[in-house]
Amino acid sequence: MARGRAMSAASRSPHAVAVTSHECLTPFQPDRVFPNDGAGSESTGASTISHTEADSTPHPLVGNVALPPELLSRFRVIALTCLLATAALGLVVAYGHSPYAFEKPALAWLGGPPSAANRTWADLAKLLAGPVIGAVLAAAFVVGLRRRALLRVAAYAVIAASAILISENIAKPLVQRTYLAELTFPSGHVTAASASALALWLALYPLVGRWARIIVLVLGIVWTVLMSLAVVGAHWHTPVDAVGSILLSVGVVSAGAVTCARPVISMTSALGRRRCR
Questions:
Q1: Is residue 53 located within the same domain as residue 79?
Q2: How confident is the model over 49-84, as pLDDT tens digits?
Q3: CA of 147: how far to CAs of 14, 80, 151, 154, 180, in Å?
Q4: CA proximity to 185, closest of 221, 234, 239
Q5: Residues 205, 144 share a domain
Q6: Is it the case that residue 156 has pLDDT exceeding 70?
Q7: Contacts of 89 (CB under 8 A, 6+ apart)
Q8: In which domain, by residue range, is 242 found?
């Protein structure tokens, strides 16, 4: 009887309550391990570490998805600024039918007269669109799978796709700017490149180290600049179209990252609680 009462008291000890609370409330914080309370609880302490290691493992499809709060704060400002700038630029160029005078030197320098548009630029733009986007997405999904955050990468890929849809189905019909009888503001090619680059950089941000983030960001900027040069050189778009595309992409992706941050974290926490039941 005495042994049974002792075991019952041990099961109701504050340390046992702390273990249960730690397992179910913070399943994705492997750096926090409750310390051992003292002598006579070695087995309980070992159980705590064992359960913590098991339950703090990221969900195999979601992973640790939280972006740093300071980064989210910056992207709130960036999203608002870029979306307002896109709207203002769209109002300025709305219903225009020819490049502005300051755009013509860039068009002439990159591609020559419209009738002799450089086919090399056109081929480069096509290469930087579908093939490169496919390769970048494949690489990002591989990293997401290896880092147990596949759904995170998929969510940001959807955000990038939404920027492209907004560009082609909302912005272009509203602005109605034409060049060579085609709607051109904003550029779908530049939107696809810049939105994909930024969205996947944000998707991989918590999953890779500092230098990897820098490399991915630089490659994304180079990709966007090359695509902008290519569509201007091919006389598909003007420089203002390319600038508007970048502003729209950054605005939509930043807004998407900020908007989906809380729901995705909530989903991760729910999955973690389900695993520790």
A1: no
A2: 344 333 444 444 444 456 778 888 899 999 999 999
A3: 35, 31, 11, 13, 47
A4: 239
A5: yes
A6: yes
A7: 240, 243, 244, 247
A8: 69-274
